[in-house]
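Recap for those who missed Tuesday's class. We walked through two folding examples back to back. For each one, the amino acid string is listed first and its predicted structure tokens come directly after. Nothing is annotated here on purpose, so try labeling regions yourself before you check the end of the notes.
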Amino acid sequence: MNSESVNILAIESSCDETSAAVVRDGVVLSNLIATQKVHELYGGVVPELASRAHMQNIVPVVDVALKNAAIDKKDIDAVAFTQAPGLIGSLLVGACFAKAYAQALDVPLIAVHHMQAHVLAHFIDEPKPEFPFLCLTVSGGHTQIVLCRDYLDMEVLGETIDDAAGEAFDKTAKMLGLPYPGGPLVDKYAQQGDPRKFQFTMSSMQGYDFSFSGLKTAVLYFLQAQKKLDADFVSKNLVDICASVQYTIIKMLMNKLHKAAKELKIRNVGIAGGVSANSGLRKALQDAGQEYGWNVFIPKFEYCTDNAAMIGITAYHKYLKGEFADMSISPTARAAW
């Protein structure tokens, strides 16, 4: 290992993004992402196709990441990979590659939890939060409120008991006939609509937990009823429907986040995960920051979606603590923190 610096090669392959990054002493030198377009034909991620695409992409993506970082593979001090959660076939590609690479270089292997990495994406660029830090992690598969006491000391305070917020966005888009991925399109149209045009009931979960399945059902029944009265209802009211649904989802998220911040007396608050790229959610957090006196943190767009830079940052802090993985470790589709 190099005595002067710590160079980590990080691999992210939890879903349909093949990503590689090089992180030196907690600084991202390169971050490459290969997006899989094939899933657009099917209206969602097809696991088998995703794993095949990872196998095709991973070698060239890693090669370019090393070149962009101007670093030779012999200078790598550790190899990190996403160990959980995610699509098992996709995870296996990244895990097997990372193991082989680490063994070939005779360097440590570091296993990273995907959701923990989303939270630590806040520590890639300035300004960085001070601890304790409250993070709302929102993606297509997860919705959680996380209390961060330190880089590797986190506690999930609440999470969705059924569907994730990102899934609610995507399923709404599908019901509206929008192409995959639909979540960003709902956000795009919502910016042009009236968020209070249509009212949808919000779930009333106890504590800090969420539930979005009821909202999805409510939107479905609402659209079915309206289309019976007017077959062109969706096309006539698309922007207002998107705005109203998005308003409801964001309100549910922000209500719980405010509750947690108030009860725990925490002022450092941020969002992470793919849905944190949503313009409405970003604005809602900024507005709440002004209203409640929060110090608000929002990662750059490139670090909100799945990327290897966040895996590398997490791995750097695990490296400093000597938290290495054994070569017998296996990826898992679901895993607690």
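Example two. Treat it independently of the first, because the proteins are unrelated.
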Amino acid sequence: MTKSLKIIEVKSEIGAGTRGASLGVDAIKIAALDFGSRFFKKHKSIEVPNENHLLLESTGSPYAKRISGILTMVERVSEEVKNTLGNNEFPIVLAGDHSTAAGTISGIKAAYPKSRLGVIWIDAHADMHSPYTTPSGNMHGMPLAMVLDEDNTDSKVNKLDQETINYWYQLKNVENIAPKINYRDLVLISARDMEKPEEHLIKKNKVKNITTAEFRKRGVERTVIETMMYLDHCDLIYVSFDVDSLDPTASRGTGTPVAQGLTEKEAGGLMTRLITHHKVCCFEIVEVNPTLDKENQMAEHAFEILIKATNAFRNE
């Protein structure tokens, strides 16, 4: 039985350091209209309420900015993803900043608590900081640490107050499951901008990171086969695509662009092959920021990747 797609819109940007990612979902919808596509009319969609009003208030802890709002968002996204999977639908999550991906992973684990979950993280960054190691306090750099139940106290540089410690503990324990994934079940693709604490974790836990150069050398087909073989022991796989994995020459429309990324064509080919794999249960696109863009280019790239991937999914 083919599952129907359900779009989960998360217009949250409280985890980012730059403003504008909450507008990414609507920018992708505008790109769809410009392409004359009925994609958003055709598929069921739901919007998760956001906490962006917190942007007008104090950030709270400098090492975990707006952490109370992040916890609320992670719980809401988790609930929505869990319900979507429970209805035998395939969630396509379109989100603002990447922090809420911890909610997506939590929701998958809550829906399938006995299943081993693999994660393919296509991103310029490793997003493994904790409040103890973060240089910025922006929580979109922390979603993998949340689901790995990782403090990385070996690399500790920040001293946290008790309230932050409590919120961080709650974030790691959303759905009362911690850790939600293991390092062995994680593959990074195109990660190229890491700080020392993250490099320490990647080395210590032997995390598989396929660099842009390695990806080019192997090509889409071989990269996908190798990734799926590496995650063969997992029951389910979630794919998270941060548009900053794309090279900035394609578009600057994301908060933290980094050189030497993927082309739109490479990313599209990669997504199309991944989404058709029978173990992939959820797909996410994050961090489109039209305020940093010209002529909505990044949203157009994101929409083209989304269309390629979902067409492949339907034609399986």
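Answers for example two:
The radius of gyration is 18 Å.
The chain has one domain: 4-314.
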